[in-house]
Amino acid sequence: MKLLEVIKSLSNETRLNILGWLKDPFDHFPEEELSNYTPALGVCVSDIAQKAGMSVPTVSDYLKTMSNAEILIATRQGQWTYYKRNEKAIQELATMIKENL
């Protein structure tokens, strides 16, 4: 894990919010939006964009940045892309911060 890349990927309030929302999607997204939600896939980009009040392209860019930093895991299914947290990477980040900063 590249610490600087991860920190840069989270250096935006909306990206931090997204990471928090994905921690427990049922607490942050309306049930009707999560009708197709499965923990194995995550939450659809369009649902995240709606929650953020932003365009799908902007949120897609944010999610791609976070995915490239390995904080999120992207799963493509047909025309849809779903995102979920990479809990292992998040734990590694917490350990790195605790031990090195």
Automatic annotation (TrEMBL):
Pfam families per UniProt: HTH_5
Signal peptide limits: none
Alphabetically ordered keywords of this record: DNA-binding, Transcription, Transcription regulation
Species per Swiss-Prot/TrEMBL record: Chryseobacterium shandongense
GO molecular function annotation: DNA binding; DNA-binding transcription factor activity
Record-linked SUPFAM superfamilies: Winged helix' DNA-binding domain (SSF46785)
InterPro entries listed in its UniProt record: ArsR-like_HTH (IPR011991), HTH_ArsR_DNA-bd_dom (IPR001845), HTH_MetalResp_TranReg (IPR051081), WH-like_DNA-bd_sf (IPR036388), WH_DNA-bd_sf (IPR036390)
Coiled-coil residue windows: none
Keyword DNA-binding: yes
Name by which UniProt lists this protein: Transcriptional regulator
CDD domains associated with the record: HTH_ARSR
HTH arsR-type domain boundaries: 1-101
Gene3D superfamilies linked: Winged helix-like DNA-binding domain superfamily/Winged helix DNA-binding domain
